[in-house]
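Hi F.,

I've been meaning to write this up properly since the lab meeting, where we talked about keeping a consistent format for the predictions we share between groups. The idea is simple: the sequence comes first, exactly as it goes in, then the structure tokens exactly as they come out, then a line or two of notes. No screenshots and no reformatting. I'm using this chain as the first example so we have something concrete to point to.
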Amino acid sequence: MGYRITTLRNLPVGLSCYFFLVGDYRNKNHINDLFRDDFNVIADRIGEDAAIIESTKNGQIEEELTVLLNQYIYKYSKTASFLDRFFMEHPGLLILDRHPDKISDKSLFLYLPFEILEKTYTSTNELISDIVLFAKFKDISIVKKTTKMHPLIKSVSVSLNLGVVSLNFDL
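Output, unedited:
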């Protein structure tokens, strides 16, 4: 499903995977164009149990996300301002395995800057396929491919428990 929202309060709880488009991705390149122009295609393909989310023009979801991430995952007071600035300087795809209001230190948190996706994927069809497979917990190719291209991700561990994929990584 696809959501274009102004606030996280408008986002349904209980989906299995949330894909947030964060930061300004109006510049032209094939990955930004994909998320901007083919948003509905991705929304249709990931199914009813997952969501791809973008902010409206006056939306505040990036700010809300940074506050929630600071509150539940990170325990440092300056994290929210750092993440907010990071999202603006490095637009990307933030993947969570639960609604942001329900995140904890056990939640999936995966951030893939568009610049990394641009370097990793020459085919937007391949990226859409990898997003769909990840959303359905059938394949983690998107993680494998981007970790090869991104030197800051040091390790990824994957576990399967009752049909839920859990990813943990150190930056």
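Notes:
The helical segments are 30-37, 39-46, 61-72, 79-89, 114-120, 124-135, 141-149.
The beta strands are 2-5, 17-22, 50-55, 92-96, 109-113, 155-161, 164-170.

If this format works for you, I'll send the rest the same way.

G.
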